[in-house]
Structures are given as C-alpha cells and as structure tokens.
Amino acid sequence: MTEFPKKTLRIGLIGSGFIAEFHLRSMIGVRNVEVTGVYSRNAENRQRICTLVTQLELGDCTSYGSLSEMLQSDDIDAVWLLSPNHTRLDTMRTIHEEVTAGRSKIFAVACEKPLGRTVSEAREMLRLVEDAKLNHGYLENQVFSTAVLRGKEIIWRRAASTTGRPYLARAAEEHSGPHAAWFWQGDKQGGGVLNDMMCHSVEVSRHLLTEPGKPRNSLKVKSVNGTVATLKWNRPRYADELKARYGAEVDYRNRPSEDFARGTVVLEDETGQELIIEATTSWAYVGAGLRIQLELLGPEYAMEFNTLGTGLKIFMSREVQGSEGEDLVEKQNAEQGQMPVLEDEAGVYGYTDENRHMVECFRKGETPLETFHDGLAVVEILIGLYKSAETGQTVHFPAPDLEDYVPLVARPA
Ligand SMILES: NC(=O)c1ccc[n+]([C@@H]2O[C@H](COP(=O)([O-])OP(=O)(O)OC[C@H]3O[C@@H](n4cnc5c(N)ncnc54)[C@H](OP(=O)(O)O)[C@@H]3O)[C@@H](O)[C@H]2O)c1
C-alpha cells in the first residue's frame, strides 16, 4: 500500500519530443518532484531528455528502451503520457497490464491531450485507468495559464458575485502548423486542427464558465455546432511544401485535414441559465507565433487575454542576420522587425502550474482539478463538432451515436 503524502513524486516520461521538453522546462518551477525515467523508441531521443534532466537538476534519469521495464522500476511513482495520439491506448493498455498483474507500483498517470481520438477510445482510457485503481490527471495546460488563474479568480470574486455569472467564453488558438508529420495525418492524429487545438479552447472555456468550487459537470452541454475547412495547406504550393518537409505520407493535395475550425457549444448551468462557448482554431495563422486569445464576458464585466500582446517586445533591423528559431515565442515565424517575446512561456501557457498541481495531487493522493473524466467530456464535444461539420446539422446532447463516430479526415482512405 502506498502511504500518502509521499515526500517526493518520482516520475517517468513516456515520449521524448516537443511536449516532453516543455514539461521538463516547467518542472524547475515545481517542488517535491524528480524525473527518474524516460521511455521512447529511439535511444538518442531518450538521451536528449536525460541530458536535459541533468542540466535542469531534476534528478537521476534512466533511459528505458522498454515501457514495461520503466513501469517495473522501483523508482517510478507516476508516469506522464506524452507520446503521439495514435499510441495513447496501447500505452495505457500496457500500464493497465503491468499494474493489475502486480509488476508495477506506479499509482498515478497524467495524460496529454487529447485523451483519445474517438469517444470510445477516450472512454476506454478512463475505464483502464480506473480499473487499475490509478489516480489520474488530464493535462490541459490552458486551465493553469497564469492569466487564466488570475483572471478567473478576480472575475468570479469581484464581478460575478455581485452582478451575476459569466455567460460567454471565447477562445482561439492559432499558429502556422504543427512540427511533426503525424499531426498532419488524420488517421494518426484523430483529425486536423479541430482535434489538435480546439481541445484547449473548449476546456479552458468550460473552466472559465464553471463557478469556483463547483464540479465541471455542473455545466451540461446542450448542443454543438461546428464548421471545418482547409484554407491554406491544400493549395498546391503549400501541399508540396508539406510533402517536401515530411515525405509522401503527408499528402495534402489528396488527403488534407482541416486547418481551420469553428465551434459553438451551448451549455446550461444548474439553474437552467444558457451559456455559450465560441471557439476558433487554425493552422493557417501566420503572425508572430502561437496566438491564444481568451475572453470571458458577463452582465457587467469582461476579461480578455492575448498571448502575443506581450509587455516585452524586441525590434531587430534588417541588418540583424541569424538562424531560424523559436526562442522568442512558440511557432515563431520571423527573426526580424518588431517582435513579441514571452519571458516565461511555461508559466503563461500553464505548464508550470499544471505540473505543480498534478505533482501535489498525486503526492498527496488527491483528485486533480482535471481528470480523465474531463478528457472524455472534451472528446465528446470535439467529436460532436466534427459530426455537425460533416452533416451540416447541430448535434444535440446527449448523443450516444457519437460513441464510434470517426471524423471524416481520420477514416481509412
Ligand atoms: N498541451 C499542449 O499544448 C501540447 C503541445 C504539443 C503536443 N501535445 C500532445 O503531446 C503529445 C506528444 O506531442 P509532441 O509534440 O511531443 O510530439 P513529437 O514532438 O512528435 O514527439 C513525440 C514523441 O513520442 C515518441 N514516441 C513515438 N511513438 C512512441 C511510442 N509508441 N511510445 C513511446 N513514445 C513514442 C517519439 O520518440 P521516439 O521516436 O524515440 O519513440 C517522440 O519523442 C501528443 O499527444 C500531443 O497532442 C500537447
């Protein structure tokens, strides 16, 4: 039996790519944690992570070429599931098998978005984690963005308490396209930008609209209406650019996923008050870099936040020459001119407070603010939006026929 609280949570990473590095960089702002292992298929990738763990003084990290071996190790308490979407369920099955057979002593799993590519996948993730009696957290970083933490607290304490609850949340996340081939492949990723990024917009909006202290299911989804389109990346020049970058498997002349999505989600609170989420996401936004825009509106107040409206800006003239990078903001598109800089991306995007929260909950044996239940609820909304976009109809909830629905771009050719 694990005794709580544990003094230190020792975590193993599953995956060694972009998001694994982001999580590591944020961990220097988290107490009571050590990173003691990493598993992915390629030894060089794992070594890169181990070296970073050493540089950041986050612990002694062992590189594992087998997931089971890492799960069976005596110095792993919890795993962060950070591998691509199409590996999610198999990974969770291995975790379930090792724990239920008594070979692994891990007691918690934190999983990146999305929880599954379909409702049935996400529901199976939840079933497996609960059947193995593991504590679970759904990693939705925007809920823990420093601006969201501060903004939500002020709005609800000062304005909603005296003039009434907020009724409209608007959320947008846009950039110029993801960084690895599998994101662009509908079957592997589960869809296009709607699946990849609207998961953030939907969940941060649900969070902002939820009264502090109330469970997320105090809001009920009534209906969803979505639109998807491919605006940029199916144009011949850009389709060819993708093929040159990622190989023939990313074929946007013939098999494009959507690079634009819009969704309206109608909800109801416990008193029957109607609430709305308006979300828009795109991989076709060429601005300074990743742009997250959030608004929360109520009867006598408004909150707004834009990650590119930074206090810090840097100007570099055309005489400044240098290599391309993402050292100013994520998905940066230029190295010259007037440019916004995020001094603390891990904090502003929410990774630091997210990991602090998950580590503290797991260490103490408490239920996190975001669990696999929330991951499943998000997938239900996204899949409803895909179905609405395909049929041209609003989807009314509850919608049991969404269970095995696969978005058009994710179906086999
Ligand atoms: N919260 C956010 O804003 C955010 C941002 C980006 C990504 N994500 C999510 O994080 C996850 C990973 O995305 P990423 O951007 O890190 O992708 P990525 O850069 O392509 O990295 C994927 C990593 O997974 C490893 N991998 C591949 N197959 C694996 C398997 N079967 N088992 C274990 N590891 C495997 C790869 O290493 P090997 O080749 O060595 O196996 C690679 O290190 C995705 O689910 C994505 O949706 C979230």
TrEMBL record:
One Pfam family linked to the record: GFO_IDH_MocA_C
Domain Gfo/Idh/MocA-like oxidoreductase N-terminal: 9-133
InterPro entries xref list: Gfo/Idh/MocA-like_OxRdtase_C (IPR004104), Gfo/Idh/MocA-like_OxRdtase_N (IPR000683), Gfo/Idh/MocA_oxidrdct_glycsds (IPR050463)
Domain of life: Bacteria
This protein's UniProt keywords: Oxidoreductase
Ranges where the Gfo/Idh/MocA-like oxidoreductase C-terminal domain occurs: 181-396
Protein name as annotated: Gfo/Idh/MocA family oxidoreductase
Organism: Pseudohoeflea coraliihabitans
